[in-house]
Amino acid sequence: MTLTLNKITSQRGISVGEATKKISDLGWNPSYVQEASTFPTDYKITKAPRDPMKQVLRSYFPMQEEKDNRVYGALDAALRGDMFRNVQPRWVEWMKLFLAIIPFPEISAARSMAMIARLAPGEDLRTGFTMQMVDEFRHSTIQMNLKKWYMENYIDPAGFDITEEAFGKCYATTIGRQFGEGFITGDVMTSACMYLTVVAETAFTNTLFVAMPSEAARNGDYALPTVFLSVQSDESRHIGNGHSMLMAALKEPENHLLLERDLRYAFWQNHAIVDAAIGTLIEYGTTNRDKDKESYAEMWHRWIFEDYYRTYMLPLEKYGVKVHHDDVQEAWNRITKKNYVHKIAQFFAVGWPVNFWRIEAQTEKDFEWFEHKYPGWYAEFGDFWKWYSKLSKPGETVVTFNEDTGYVYPHRCWSSLVPCVVREDIVVDQIDGQWHTFAHELDRWTAVSAFSDEYEGRPTPAMGKFSGKREWESVYDGWDLADAIKDLNFVREDGETLVAQPHLRFDNKDMWKLEHVRGHTLRSPLNMLRAMSDTDRDAHIAKYREGFTINPCN
Amino acid sequence: MVATSSSVGSGAAGAATFVGSTSRRYNYFEPRGKRATHYEDVTVDVQPDPERYLIQNWIIEFEGGKGGGAYTKDSTAALSSNWHAFRAPDQEWERTHYQRQSKIESMVQSVITNARRAGAPRSFDKNWQMILQKHLGAWKHAEFGLGTSLMQAQRYGYSQMINNATLTNSSYKMRLAQDITLYLAEIGMDLEGWDDELGKKCWLEDPIWQPTREAIETIMGCEDYLEQYFAINIVFEPLVGELIRSGFFMQAAAANNDFITPPVISAAEADYERNLANTVDLIYLLANDEQYGDHNRKLFKGWLAKHRDLADKAAIALQPIWSQPHSKPVSFEDVKAVSHERISQIVTELGLS
């Protein structure tokens, strides 16, 4: 028999279950003054949700500090190991876009905890929401720190240096704004629970924070996986919070119609936004063309289709919520048969002068991999990337306005703000007497039916409303391209050289300047559509649905 | 691995020189000092608005009830010519927040564990044991009420700096409420007849606590996020929070054989110093706003009067607690005078006296 220190010093402690029970008893029903009214919802929540994680702040803070220590230790080690000497610029350039977007959705999620915590009766889950609030504060500032670290150590800091300004202005980050504002605006259950936790965090953080870091590592970037896998380790708690609120909402049959609506809207829009951005980053930001690795489509099938749809969405049917299986199938079709991600990558490349990162042309090695993973890819996209490469030299007519390529600039979806790149699926409809364009019938349904003050005969006054200059192109309608870039402040310190470049040549002689893009006028496709007669509009949309053909590039 | 996609075979800073290759600072905001602090770099402008960079304006609006975009200036009656000028003096971002909170939790747990191992709770004065059950047990609910109010408030501010300072303030309050809860539960395991429910009963029913509960519920009921932040840190904390934490539990404990409660509570006093500094800085900016200073000072004086009245009543109702321990090393009148001195310094500093 041995005597251990533990045996001498051990004492009876409080169990985790007991601790969480006592903490959930901290709240009370106010009797002097009622709590302030908060953001509205059309849902009815009467059942107190349970906290599945049963964690208290006493263990939470040391755990998070330990996770931080590992993250910051790894960043130091990466510098000592000279990571940036070997990192692929093709990859890091896309981080200028990704990391410009993501801190805002993260901190929005922190703000949304205030909204959802007040909606839930009882105090059991409030501890969970409190920890999520602090988690999201963690994510936002740890990501800003990572971006600063890239800026300080990567070969070309331009684009990182204007990051938050760029986020508010860019034609591409507008997609991320729809994502982040979607967490905090409109019906609380729709935004903070269904859109944020039940769909974005439960389904799509797997592609955002797990699949993407794997690709980063393949490109010599060990920092992104370090930070984002640490971020993802918090998500399981958030998924628990969302599921618990969802279960509380399910208890009321009158919520079922709204749950069906919101699950549908949230799934489709998360697909439209996250797959557009992350699909492009993973497939086009990499230099690794190992044919044995999973493509984005294959990862999507694993994470979204098998994991989320089959094990999370489908079981909701037994609680009485209609699940739209066809939507999931359609998203899968868009990725695998309609080349959604590839067309988005093409759009990002065409718009390079008005973004704030470099996009390098895809090469023969890339072509081979794409054709292997997506048979037929080369026939549709090969010539485009050859054109892009050819037109990457300053002095060439910028690809955005070069009619030799055959590319036709797309309409913007009023709902997801992602362009209508699957041309045959474009839909137009009127809202308040004005024409709008949508990437898909489900996007039209989202804007016209879901974001409305009435849903299937039921008043839904709390639902949000799409607003603002949602079509980015309308902001600069009629501007000269060079003037727009200057106004965006996407110009380097000499006042002439563009932040964005269509190549990875780090030499002044290869850099595009304002003078190289002057003389082209930006147009709003939506304004042009609205100015058309009914006949012209019908003809225009019919032609748009036929698509375009890229001319051979010799 | 080689950086094959780089024209110079490397992705490292300095591998090539070209326009923009040395632009290694965030350049879209004016730092408070000569150079941006780390806190500013990771905080400023993460929450944009149509005046700062959102060229498309807000793209979703609240249709029912509230109206407007994701953030609106009218979530408070205060006005500002520049909501983005504020920088939190505590410079808190995630890393410093977790380091500080984690250290506090380690310290608190270590104190409780070692004290229990030494059998310390059993040597507490009997009366003191009852005081902890009833009054420290009641106080944890007050801290929780402040924490939830701040959690609510952090949704509404018009800049990232305001909201993050409010968020960390909420996090500190929530931690303290939980620390007290678990502390009482743990020492209760060593003491016969301990009733862990007594605190909440007092909070809800004991006349001593009802004015405090009213003051807290009034803060919880404020529709104006800045009024909540102001009422908590400028008014309630000096007049009631510090009064009972420092002025009673920390000073009276040792004289009643309790050396555990003071360190458990002490972290809250340090938390408050930071949160007070943040609040004073923000309120000072608004009270001295060139355009709206007069309006704001008038508004703040109204908040001060409203919440001070409630806090004064709360403090007076708490007075009997000072008479309850066997050993009474400090008088209520003395600590009340200290708390009045404290708030007087704060409001004078702010030009609200």
Quick take:
The complex is a heterodimer of chains A (554) and B (353). Chain A is mainly α and 554 residues long.
Explain how this protein is built.
The complex is a heterodimer of chains A (554) and B (353). Chain A is 56% helix and 3% strand. Chain A is an all-alpha fold and 554 residues long. Chain A has one domain (57-475): Ribonucleotide Reductase, subunit A (Orthogonal Bundle). Chain A has a two-stranded antiparallel sheet. In chain A, strands 3-4 form a two-stranded antiparallel sheet. In chain A, strand 3 (454-455) and strand 4 (458-459) form a beta hairpin. In chain A, helix 5 runs antiparallel to helix 7 (126-153), helix 9 runs antiparallel to helix 12 (256-284) and helix 10 (188-218) packs antiparallel against helix 11 (223-250). With 353 residues, chain B is mainly alpha-helical. Chain B is 58% helix and 1% strand. Chain B starts with 37 loop residues before the first helix and ends with a helix. The chains are: A mainly alpha (554), B mainly alpha (353). The interface between A and B is large, with 125 and 108 residues. Strand 5 of chain A pairs antiparallel with strand 1 (60-61) of chain B, so a sheet runs across the interface.
